[in-house]
Amino acid sequence: MVINLFSWIKRLFKKKKKAKIGIYGPPNAGKTTLANRIVRDWSGDAMGPVSHIPHETRRARRREDVIIEANGTTVTLDIIDTPGLATKIDFHGFMACGMEEEEAKRRAKEATEGVIEAVKWLEDLDGVILVMDATEDPFTQVNVTVIGNMEARKLPLVIAANKIDVQTASPARIRGAFPQHPTIPISALEGINTDQLYKEIAKRFG
Amino acid sequence: MSQNKNNSQTNIQLDFISEGKLAQMAPMEKIRMLLDEVRSGKIVVLERGLAPDEEAKLIEMTMTEIIPDEFSGIEIESYPIEQNTSFLRKILGKNTTKTRLTIIGPADQLKTIRKDRDMITAIVTK
C-alpha cells in the first residue's frame, strides 16, 4: 500500500518525457528523408514520399509516440514533418522541373498553403530539428527566422547539417554560422551519423 | 509599381524606415505596411528589423498574397538576431533578443547574392 502510494506520487512528479517536435527547413533540405529515417529506425514505418522537385511535402504530417532511446535516456516524440518554408513561390520553377503550367500552378498554390501550415505549427511545438542542406549557404532567411523564433521562445533546437554524403557539403560552415546551437552532420539518405543525432535529440528533448 | 519614369530612366524607390517609426506600430500594422510597400515595387530597409514572430507572420501573410504571374513573394534578408546579455534584462525577465537591419523587396526585383553574419550583398533589378 505504502509502496503503491510512493510509486503514484513518483509518477505524478516525474518529468514528462514527451515532446512535440517539428522538422523544419527550406524546401529540398531533406526534411521528409530525415523524418522517414527517424520513424523507420524507431517504429519501422515511414512518414511520406520524397522528391527532387521542391515542395513535395505540402501538408504537415504528424507521427505520434515515436520512442527514441539513446545515451540511457528514453524520449517519446510526436514528430511533425512540415512543408518547406519559403518567402517566395513561383510556379515557373515547377515548370522548369518538367511540369505542365496547370499542374505547376496547382502545386504552387498548395505549396503556399503548406508554408502557412508550417508557420502556424511553430506556435505549438516543444522543440525543432532544423534541417539545413550542408552544401548550401546556411544564412538563409528561413533558417534565421526559425532560429529566431525558437530563441525568442527559449525552446530547444537541434540543427541537422544534412547531405554530408555529397562531396561539397560543409557542416563546419553551418556550425560557424550558428555556434549557439548543437549542429550534427548527417546524411539522412545514407543514415550516416544518425546515432549522434539521436543522442542529441534525447539530450535536448528528453 | 513605384518605378518613376524620369527622362526615360526607370527608378526604383527605396524606403529606409527608422526603429522609432516601427516601434510605434502594432505588429499587423507593420506587416500590412511592408507588404503594401513591397507589392507596389518598393524596396524597404528596416533599421532594426522585425521580431522573430513578426517575421514568421510576414512569411505567412506573403503566402496568402501570391498570385501567379503577378506577385511571387518577397525577398527578405536580415542578419541573425543577437542576444542581449545584459544581466539586468535577464533578471527582470525582459526580452533578451536584439533584431537587426533587414531588407525586404519583391522576389522578382531583389536578389541576394551573398549573406553572412555581418554582411548582405544584394542586387536590385527593374
The portion of residues assigned to helices of chain A is 25-40%
Class by alpha and beta content of chain B: alpha+beta
The main β sheet of chain B shows up as:
4 strands, mixed
Q: How many strand elements of chain B? A: 10
Q: What is the approximate shape of chain B? A: globular
As a percent range, the share of helical residues of chain B equals 25-40%
* Lateral strand order in the biggest sheet of chain B: 3-4-8-5
- Looking at the overall shape, the CATH architecture of chain A is 3-Layer(aba) Sandwich
Largest sheet of chain A: 6 strands, mixed
CA radius of gyration of chain B: 16 Å
- The arrangement of helices and strands of chain A along the chain is HEHEEHHEHEHEH
Low-confidence region ranges of chain B: none
Short description:
The complex is a heterodimer of chains A (206) and B (126). By secondary structure, chain A is α/β, with parallel strands linked by helices.
List strands and helices in order, with pairings.
The complex is a heterodimer of chains A (206) and B (126).
Chain A: H1 2-13, E1 18-24, H2 31-43, E2 61-70, E3 73-81, H3 91-95, H4 101-121, E4 127-133, H5 141-152, E5 157-162, H6 171-177, E6 183-185, H7 194-205
Parallel strand pairs in A: 1-3, 1-4, 4-5, 5-6
Antiparallel strand pairs in A: 2-3
Chain B: E1 5-6, E2 9-10, E3 14-17, H1 19-23, H2 27-39, E4 43-46, H3 52-65, E5 74-78, E6 82-83, H4 87-91, E7 97-98, E8 102-106, E9 110-116, E10 119-124
Parallel strand pairs in B: 3-4
Antiparallel strand pairs in B: 1-2, 4-8, 5-8, 6-7, 9-10
Helix pairs in contact in B: 2-3
